[in-house]
Specification:
Distance between the termini: 33 Å
CATH topology of the largest domain: N-terminal domain of TfIIb
Number of strands: 11
Bound molecules: zinc ion
Radius of gyration: 18 Å
Length: 122
């Protein structure tokens, strides 16, 4: 298994020293992205992923705002919880949503699932 840019790859075949790795970030989604390595160096990155990278919970930090609301800090961005949702699935909106009309949203489901929808525009 190799990890690259938040994606996980598993070896699919070897030709001499060259190993071809297939994206295995999402097993059930057939993602066309592959990388090639020779002696542990990435020599080629092929095709775009058809999904976002899986995010790492270790980068996520829950913080308390001045107003006493729980916020998420992730990779230098702050997120507010989006109200009106019950249950373990939570949506978190970029704190610059109003200022920059940023659409970036985080989705968390308990401690198991953590994903980002849309990229930041700032
Ligand atoms: Zn992929
Ligand atoms: Zn943003």
């Amino acid at each position: 298994m190799v990890k690259y840019n938040g994606y996980t790859y598993s070896a699919s075949y070897t030709t001499g020293k060259k190993i071809r790795w297939r994206c295995s970030t999402h097993q059930h989604q057939s993602c066309p992205a592959t990388i090639h390595t020779i002696d542990d160096f990435i020599v080629a990155v092929n095709k775009a992923h058809n999904h976002h990278p899986k995010l790492d919970f270790s980068d996520l930090e829950y913080v308390m705002s001045n107003k006493g609301n729980v916020m998420i800090k992730h990779q230098g961005y702050m997120y507010h919880i989006k109200r009106g949702r019950e249950g373990p699935k939570k949506m978190w909106r970029c704190s610059r949503h109003n200022t920059f009309h940023c659409k970036a949203t985080l989705i968390t489901i308990g401690e198991e699932y953590f994903q980002r929808k849309y990229d930041h525009n700032h």
